[in-house]
C-alpha cells in the first residue's frame, strides 16, 4: 500500500508531503529529488526503485506527484490513484500549478486525508467529496445535523457517488464523446498503426435518483438485435451518412456507477449517475477508423545544400463539417541555414528553436486539400551522417468521432419523481482530436 | 594568451551566454541553442561575406555551445579562415577553436597546416607563438609529421626571438612525447644542447625540459650537456639574489631552472672530469649551506623555493652515491626537517631518507634518527607521512636495531591505517625473517603478526613461517607450544588456525607430554575452530587430523568419528569430501606401519629465497624497495609463487594436490625413507630395517639398493632391487652372500633395475646378520661394496595376543636372571607415542593394550619361530618423558635371544 505522497515543484522543492506509514522516512523525499528530478539523465520510467523503496510518479506541467511505498503494491492501482488525485485537484481548484497548490495547501492535505487512509485509496469521487470537503471554509458549517448524517450514510452506503434529495427545475444532461486519434503512416500512404482512444464524459443535472441507460452502436449489441429480429429503426436512422452501422470496441472501462453485472450479461450500460461532471466510460478501437486528414509529403534533396519539401493535406470527412486548430509540423535537418515557405492557406513559419516548420490553419472544411512548399537551404557539414528524417506530425480538432461511435440513446427513468425520459433535455457532442498523428516522409 | 582587450569584447556573445544562464529549464536551454545554431548557420550560409569580427563572434559562440556539451559539426571552415586574419584576437580565437575542435577532415587539415606554416614563417613572434601553441595543444601524429622538421630549425635559428624559442622548445617536447619516432634531432643535437648557454633564462628553462626528456632516451648523444649544466648551475648558485632580476623568486635565484638542472644531472653518472666534478660538488655544498642560512623572507614561497632546490640536490647526491661527506650532510639536514612543522617537508624528508638509508655511506647517519622516525610513525596525523615513516624504518633496519623496529612496527600495526596494513605486515615479516637471531623470536613475531593483523597476512607470510619451522629442528617444539597457546584465544584469525593446524599436525607430539596439551586437547582445540573456517583451511585441518591419527593412535576413534560425520563425508565441497573419505579409509585400512610412512613428518624444504620479499617487490613495483635489497636479492626475483612450489610435493601444504599425495613422502625414490636415522649410512643402513621390512638399504651416486621382504614363521623371502642411477651400464655385476643366493644378472643397464630374490630360513636363533658383497664395474673402475643384509632375529616373530593376567603370569615365569635383558638408554628421537607404537609393531611382536598399569608404558609379546625351536618373548618399554630416557626390559625363554633383542631395540628409540 502507498506509504506516502509527495508533490514537488520543477526545482524539486517539496510542496506537499504526506506520509501514511512509518516505513517511509523523511529521506525518501530527498531520494526522489536527487535520483529522479535532478537526475543527470532524464528518468523515463514512471516507476523508480531507490534503496528498496518504490517511487511512482506522474508529471503535470511542472509539478511532480510521487507516491512512495516499500511494499509490493499494484502499480496500476497506484497510478490510477494518482490520476484520480489529479482529477480531484483539478475539480477543486483548476489547473495544477505551483501557485494553485500553494494557495490550496490546507485543502490538499484535507483531501489527502480523505482519499487515502493508511495508504489505502478511499472514495475519490469528486461529487461525493465536495459534499463534505468544501473550499468555503466556515460557510460550510451551515450543514444541519440531518445533512451531516446524510453525508455519512451516503458516503458509506451503496451509492456512494450520489446523495439523495437532489432537485433541479430543469432536468438537463450533457454528453461529450471525446476521442483522440493516433496514426503512423508510411510515405506511400500506408497505415502502419492507428488507434482511437475515446472517453464518454457526462454532465448530469437530474433530480432524485434516476436510473439511466446508455446505448451506442456497439457491434455486439447491434448484431444481437439484428438476430433477435427486433430492429431498432430509430437508431439506424440516427446514424446518418457515414454509412457505418456499428463499431467494434476493443476494450472499455466504466465509471464505478455502471452496473458491471448487467453489462456482462446483457451488454447494456445502466447506472445511477453521479451529480455533475464525470467520465462514464473509456474505450479503445483499432478497426475502421476514419482518418480525418491525410498528409502527403514530398521531400527532394537537391545536392548537398538544398532540400525541397512539399506537403499536401487532404481533409477526409463530410464537407459540411469544419476542422479546427490544424497545425502541421515539418521537421527540418539540423544543418538548416535558411527556409523559404509558400503556403496557400494559413500561416507557416520556420521555428529554429524547434528545428521545424510549423504550419497553422485555423479552419478547414471537409473534402478539401491544401498545400505547402518549402525550400530549405543547408549548410555543408563535415558529418557524413545522413539526416534521419523524423516524421511530420499534425494536430487538429474535428466535430465527429473518428472511431465512428454514435450515441443511440440515453434513457432516464425516475420512478419516484414525476418526470419522464422526454422531459430531460439532452445534449450530445462529438469531438475528435489528434493524438500522435504522424506521417513519415 | 593575452586577454581580449577592451572594446574588442563581443557583445553578442555576452548576451548569448547570459541568455543561456538565465534559462529556467533544460528544454529552454536547448531551444535557445537551437535558435542560435540556426542563426549562425544562416549567417555562415549567407551570401555576403562576414567580416572578421562577426566570424570571430560566431566561432566563439560555437565553441561555447560545444563546451556546453552539444555536438558542433560546422564552423571549422570559418575558424580556418580566421587563422589567416591579421588581427591577433581573430587569429587567437581561430587557433583556439581548432585546438579544441580539431577535425580529421583531410582537406581542412591541409588548410590548417598551411595556415600554421605561414604563421611559422612569418616574422611576427606572437603569430609564431600562436602557431606553436596550436601544434603543441593538438599534438597529434599528423601535426608531428608536418612540423617535426620545422620546429628544431626555429629553435636553434640565431634570429628567433627568445619567447618563440621557449615555445618552440616546449612544442618540440610535446611532439617528442607523442611520437618520438618522428622527432629526429640528429644534426640539431649539439645546437640544442648549447641552448643551455643561452643568455635568456626562459629559453634555458624551456630547453632544459626538452633536453632532459631527450637525454633520458639517448643519454650518449646528449652527454655534453653535463658540463654545460654544471657550469650553468654554478653560475646560478653563486650569483647574488639580485643578479638574475626577473628570474629571482622570493630571493631565490632561478629556482625552477636550478631544479631542472639538478634533475638533468640525475640522468647521468657523476662527471668523470675532475674539474667539472669539483665544481659540481662545490655547487651542492653551496646549496646545502644556503639551506642552513636564516631565511631572507618569512613568506612561504621563499622557503618552498629553497627547499625544492635542496631536495633536488639531495636526490642528486643520493643518485651519485659517491660522496660520503655530502651524504652525511644531506642526512643531517633532512634530520632537521623530520621535526619541521610543515607536513610536506616531513614527508619529503622521510622519503629522501629512505633512499639515503640504502647508501652504505649514510646508513649509519640515518640510523641516528630512529627515535624521531618511530615517533613520527606513532604521532603523525597524515597517513601518507606515516607510510613514509614505515618505509624509512624498514629501510634503516639492520641486525642491530631489528628487534626494536619490529617491535615498534608490530605495536603500531594495531592502530595502523587500513590502507597500509598489508604492506606493513609484509615488511614486518621480512624484517623478522631477515634479521632473526633466534628463531623462537621469529616465530613469536609472526604469530603476533597474525594475531594483530590476520586479515592482512598473505599466504606467503604464513607459508614462510611453516617452512622455517619445518627446516629448523630447534624451534619445532617451541612453535608447537606457541601456536597451541595462541589458538586458545577465543577468537583467532583463520591464518592462525592454518599455521596451528599445520604445526600441530606435524609437531603436536612434541608438546603432547604435557597433560594440558595432550593429544585430545590439541585435537579438540583445533576442531573447535573448524566450523568457523573457510574450505581451504578445513582441508588443511583434515590433513592435520589424519596426521594426528598417526601421531597419537588414541585419538583415532575420535577423529574417525569426526571424519565419518555427515558434515565431512557428505560435504558439498568436493575437496573436503574427498579428503574425509580418503582419510577415513586410510586410517581404518592401512596398518600403523603404512600409516607411519604415509604420514611421515614433512621433509625439510629446500632453502630458497623468501617469497614474501618478492611479493613486497611486486606490490610496490621494482625500485620502491630500497636499492641494496634489490641488489643483494635480485637473484631471487624469479618466481613469486616461490613458496607455494617449494618441493616436489607440488605445494607446501598440498592444498591443491590430492590428499594421499599430501601425506606421502616427497618423491618416489625416497618413498619409504626411514623414520629413524638421517641418511643411509653404509652398513648401518640395516638398523633401519629392524622395525620394517621394505625400504632403501643403500644409496650412493651410482647405485641404489632397495629391499622388499616378507616373513612367515621361520621362513623369509627377500627381494633385492639393484637400481643403476647412472646412464652408463654396470658390467660384471656380481653379488656374493655368505648364505646361498640365486645369481643376479651380470649387467645392469643405465637407469635400469634388476631384481634378486633371496630365500631365507631361520634354523636357530642368531645374532650376526648375513653379509652381502656386491662387485661391479662402472666405467672401468671396479666397485666393491659390502652390506649387512637386514635379516634380524625379530623378523621371525609371531605376535601373540594375551590378556593382562596372562602376560604377568608369563612374565613371572621367565624370572630367571639370564632370561632377562635390561637396558636404560637416552632417547635418540622425539618421544612420540605414535611413533613408538609404530616401531614396536614393526618389530613384529603384538603390542598389548591395557596390560601395563601405567598407560605410558608399552608391553609386547611374541614367539620367535626357528626351525629348531620356538622362543617366547615378552617386552616392556618404559619411557620417561622428563628425563628423555627409556628403560627396556626383554624376557625370553632363551638368554641369547633376550640379549640380542635388547641390543637391536636400544638403537631404535
UniProtKB/TrEMBL annotation, chain A:
<keyword id="KW-0254">Endocytosis</keyword>
<dbReference type="GO" id="GO:0008289">
    <property type="term" value="F:lipid binding"/>
</dbReference>
<protein>
    <submittedName>
        <fullName>Adaptor related protein complex 2 subunit mu 1b</fullName>
    </submittedName>
</protein>
<keyword id="KW-0653">Protein transport</keyword>
<keyword id="KW-0446">Lipid-binding</keyword>
<dbReference type="InterPro" id="IPR043532">
    <property type="entry name" value="AP2_Mu_N"/>
</dbReference>
<dbReference type="GO" id="GO:0016055">
    <property type="term" value="P:Wnt signaling pathway"/>
</dbReference>
<comment type="function">
    <text>Component of the adaptor complexes which link clathrin to receptors in coated vesicles. Clathrin-associated protein complexes are believed to interact with the cytoplasmic tails of membrane proteins, leading to their selection and concentration. AP50 is a subunit of the plasma membrane adaptor. The complex binds polyphosphoinositide-containing lipids.</text>
</comment>
<comment type="subunit">
    <text>Adaptor protein complex 2 (AP-2) is a heterotetramer composed of two large adaptins (alpha-type subunit and beta-type subunit), a medium adaptin (mu-type subunit) and a small adaptin (sigma-type subunit).</text>
</comment>
<dbReference type="GO" id="GO:0005905">
    <property type="term" value="C:clathrin-coated pit"/>
</dbReference>
<dbReference type="InterPro" id="IPR043512">
    <property type="entry name" value="Mu2_C"/>
</dbReference>
<dbReference type="GO" id="GO:0005886">
    <property type="term" value="C:plasma membrane"/>
</dbReference>
<keyword id="KW-0813">Transport</keyword>
<dbReference type="GO" id="GO:0006897">
    <property type="term" value="P:endocytosis"/>
</dbReference>
<dbReference type="InterPro" id="IPR028565">
    <property type="entry name" value="MHD"/>
</dbReference>
<dbReference type="InterPro" id="IPR018240">
    <property type="entry name" value="Clathrin_mu_CS"/>
</dbReference>
<keyword id="KW-0168">Coated pit</keyword>
<dbReference type="InterPro" id="IPR022775">
    <property type="entry name" value="AP_mu_sigma_su"/>
</dbReference>
<keyword id="KW-1003">Cell membrane</keyword>
<dbReference type="InterPro" id="IPR001392">
    <property type="entry name" value="Clathrin_mu"/>
</dbReference>
<feature type="domain" description="MHD">
    <location>
        <begin position="170"/>
        <end position="440"/>
    </location>
</feature>
<keyword id="KW-0472">Membrane</keyword>
Automatic annotation (TrEMBL), chain B:
<dbReference type="InterPro" id="IPR017104">
    <property type="entry name" value="AP2_complex_asu"/>
</dbReference>
<dbReference type="InterPro" id="IPR016024">
    <property type="entry name" value="ARM-type_fold"/>
</dbReference>
<protein>
    <recommendedName>
        <fullName>AP-2 complex subunit alpha</fullName>
    </recommendedName>
</protein>
<comment type="similarity">
    <text>Belongs to the adaptor complexes large subunit family.</text>
</comment>
<comment type="subunit">
    <text>Adaptor protein complex 2 (AP-2) is a heterotetramer composed of two large adaptins (alpha-type subunit AP2A1 or AP2A2 and beta-type subunit AP2B1), a medium adaptin (mu-type subunit AP2M1) and a small adaptin (sigma-type subunit AP2S1).</text>
</comment>
<keyword id="KW-1003">Cell membrane</keyword>
<dbReference type="InterPro" id="IPR050840">
    <property type="entry name" value="Adaptor_Complx_Large_Subunit"/>
</dbReference>
<keyword id="KW-0653">Protein transport</keyword>
<dbReference type="GO" id="GO:0006886">
    <property type="term" value="P:intracellular protein transport"/>
</dbReference>
<feature type="binding site">
    <location>
        <begin position="57"/>
        <end position="61"/>
    </location>
    <ligand>
        <name>a 1,2-diacyl-sn-glycero-3-phospho-(1D-myo-inositol-3,4,5-trisphosphate)</name>
    </ligand>
</feature>
<dbReference type="Pfam" id="PF02296">
    <property type="entry name" value="Alpha_adaptin_C"/>
</dbReference>
<dbReference type="InterPro" id="IPR008152">
    <property type="entry name" value="Clathrin_a/b/g-adaptin_app_Ig"/>
</dbReference>
<dbReference type="InterPro" id="IPR012295">
    <property type="entry name" value="TBP_dom_sf"/>
</dbReference>
<dbReference type="InterPro" id="IPR013041">
    <property type="entry name" value="Clathrin_app_Ig-like_sf"/>
</dbReference>
<feature type="binding site">
    <location>
        <position position="53"/>
    </location>
    <ligand>
        <name>a 1,2-diacyl-sn-glycero-3-phospho-(1D-myo-inositol-3,4,5-trisphosphate)</name>
    </ligand>
</feature>
<dbReference type="InterPro" id="IPR003164">
    <property type="entry name" value="Clathrin_a-adaptin_app_sub_C"/>
</dbReference>
<dbReference type="InterPro" id="IPR011989">
    <property type="entry name" value="ARM-like"/>
</dbReference>
<feature type="domain" description="Clathrin adaptor alpha/beta/gamma-adaptin appendage Ig-like subdomain">
    <location>
        <begin position="687"/>
        <end position="790"/>
    </location>
</feature>
<dbReference type="Pfam" id="PF01602">
    <property type="entry name" value="Adaptin_N"/>
</dbReference>
<keyword id="KW-0472">Membrane</keyword>
<dbReference type="InterPro" id="IPR009028">
    <property type="entry name" value="Coatomer/calthrin_app_sub_C"/>
</dbReference>
<dbReference type="Pfam" id="PF02883">
    <property type="entry name" value="Alpha_adaptinC2"/>
</dbReference>
